[in-house]
Design goal:
- The chain is built from eight helices and seven strands; from the N terminus they run ααβαβαββαβαααββ.
- With about 250 residues, it is α/β, with parallel strands linked by helices.
- It has a single domain, classed as Rossmann fold, CATH 3.40.50.
- Strand 4, helix 5 and strand 5 form a beta-alpha-beta unit.
- Helix 2 packs parallel to helix 3 and helix 5 crosses helix 8.
- The longest helix has 17 residues.
- The radius of gyration is 18 Å and the shape is globular.
- GO terms for molecular function: carboxyl- or carbamoyltransferase activity; S-adenosyl-L-methionine binding.
- InterPro entries: CmoA, Methyltransf_25, SAM-dependent_MTases_sf.
Amino acid sequence: MSKGKSGAPEQLTDRLFATERNPEDFRFDASVARVFPDMIRRSVPGYTTIIPMIEVITEQYAQPGSHCYDLGCSLGASTLAMRHGIAHRDCTLVGVDSSSAMIERCEHYIALDDHELPVTLRCEDILETELSRASVTTLNFTLQFVPPEQRLALLTRIAEATLPGGALILSEKIRFESETEQDIQTRLHHEFKRANGYSDLEISQKRAAIEKVLIPETLAAHRDRLIQAGFDQVLVWYQCFNFVSILALKNR
């Protein structure tokens, strides 16, 4: 793996869809891992706000002697935010991702971070991750890649593992019940990408590649499922266009 002068993995500009290519499903492989920081910053409105706020939320809800999980940790941005938000040194922080390319790069970022709280990284399917005594769990743009029929079971396991007073941070791309609103929000999202330097070809090709694996749902569907899973309170703490971040809480 190539590294920059700081010792961090080299970060490249996202040009994966800049030339015409055969349609294929989006995969979190090595090519995506290399450009992921640039890709997500230029593709997800509000991402640079959500990450530091995960630290703030974690600070409020992390409990002594508990476990904190970042499920679908990718390169560890939310893992590091959680790490800096945990004030209790007897907490356990676990980052999980099924992509070995992501985990490999994540290990380097974790090692470069000047913080004493250990982080355990696991390369495995989050549907199989054992969860227990959780005070804060993060699914930061992860659930949308889980098959819809498996989402309730995952959230139920998280809710059952969450301690009273604990929290789930769930960030997602959503769709809207109104076709008019859906069209407006989609257009604004595409304008956001254009403002960040993506061409119409890049926008079109990435959308074609990702639409089979990223299945968005309405905000109402997310709320209902979280309550059904066992959370007591569900609130939206952030939204920009068709991207939201939700806080789901267990009562004390």
